[in-house]
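Bench notes, afternoon.
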Amino acid sequence: MTNKLNRTTILEHIQSKMHISNSYIESHYKLNRLKDVGLYGSRPEEDMYVFYFSKIDNKFLTGYELSEYMDKHVHQIKHQFDTLFEGQNVSSVSINVDDKFDTLLQITIKVMDDYLSIAILNLTRFVYHMPFESKSSYVNMHWKRMINDRLIWFNTGDILQQFKGRYVPLSVAHDLDGLPFEHSLLLDLPEFQIHRDFKHEIRRFYEPYPYYVQRSAKISLSYGDIFSLGSNRNEIILNKWKTMKKVTTVTNMNKFTFIELNFLRTAQPKLSDTEFRKFVNWYRINRNTVVNNYLNDESYWHSYVADMDWSYLYTMYLYDKIILSTNNDADKEDFRNTVHDIILMTKTLRKKIEVHATGFKGLLRYHDELSYKSRLKQLRSNNITFSVLKTERWKPVKLAVRRSKLKMDLLDTSTKLGLEGYNMKHCVGSYVWSVDKGYSCIYHLKYDGKPYTIEITYPNKVYKTKEPRIYQLRQVYGHHNSKAPDEVLEHMRNIVKEANKIAMNQRIKQKKIA
């Protein structure tokens, strides 16, 4: 499709629209004398065209209808307030335009040499004035910019909107001239045929959805993209989103709107190939019931739609797939949080989602597996090797452990320590500082098929007891800090006793040598 717009063609097209009014210029001039916005207080310039559109009747107003509007509202307000404030000193009274009055749009199009500008104003209020000690009152009509100004460049086909002091590409989600596309002053040009097709798709997708969903979804396709990226709908979509080709391998592009295709495109790299195919097939079959089941005002789910995207649809897919034991809001809350965690953790792990579970317990197991891997990755990224455990300080303990012939593993890195705490469901993962400074030594024991965590400390003091000791048995715990059986405690005490014996013998030898 060409990316150029012909100035002459557009100018003639706009001029042809002037047939809606016989006395249009005069009506515009008359109306502008009654408003106080400081914008167009005089007759329109050459190649400047002003249109008035009724939002209630969804039609343009002719010059005669514009005069009727003024007589109906402006004169009516003036008469009512003249009667109400007769004999009183009133400076001004403001009346907001709401359901009491028909709302007008003023669309001003200026055709310059290189571009066309569109300004859209919205009638917001009437202001009744009664000057002090004056017998003559009058009514002003106040207008406010409804949306940011637009620019259309003829030579490139770029269509921009003013945003925070600069011009940015105008999304096709927004109206080109502030009007519904079927009433647009420009979209009925042949050059905008594909734009109209995309606008139809947007309406077809959003028609069954509540307003909050329409507002939350983001559409990144711009009017300029449609001019520059291709000559037909599918070519434009494939050129706009390069990864869309991966979606076309599992479904027909023509079966979905471009908004739905973009949802599927963003889901594709997050899901395994099998999971993605299942998700696409589910959505194709159930998309017409998604609104009724999950997005109506009475649904539990609708309050969580912050941004309508693939993750919300995928949550609904899993909700249809997973069987919950009950259907109360607490279970739904647990389910929603679990799926949310799965999406976040797979993103962190750079893994694709593939859920085989058919029940909530299976989903939790998948969640816990990802949680373990996520925790492991986090620990490895900040791993510390406890070099102090290789020094002479802890040799007696390690020798005593070997002599015991028990299945004990020394936790000599922060990663191992963190995973011990994670697996055993207690706080030993927070002992990194203590171990790194040489104050503690942590072991994992497997005894009689059950795991235990053992902490041996090094106070660096020789306690004057019947059996002098350097090391102490500080803690022995199982899962969730459960108490260890006496048999395990006795084995650990013997190990520490043996370590103290070895250490004391070494010190005695060192004194003799000295």
